[in-house]
Amino acid sequence: MIIWRLALGIGWIAVGAFVLLNRERMLRWSQKHLRQNVGDVGRAIADAGRPSHMIVPGIGTIAIGVVLVFQAAG
Hints:
Elements: H1 3-21, H2 23-37, H3 40-47, H4 55-73
Helix pairs in contact: 1-4, 2-3
C-alpha cells in the first residue's frame, strides 16, 4: 500500500465533498477569480454561472480521489 497516494486520494475526496456541500460559496469564489484574472471573457462566463454548475467539478474531484485510493490499495 502506498501511503502518500492513499492520503492524497482521501484529500481529493474531501475537497470534492466540500465543493458539493458548498456549491454557492465555491461558485462565488470561482466567479471572483474569473473576473480578476481572465478579463472580459471571464466576466461574461462568471455572470452566467449558477450553483448547479459546480456539481461536475465536485464529482470529478471525488472520482480522482477514488481512483487514487484504489491505486494505493492495489
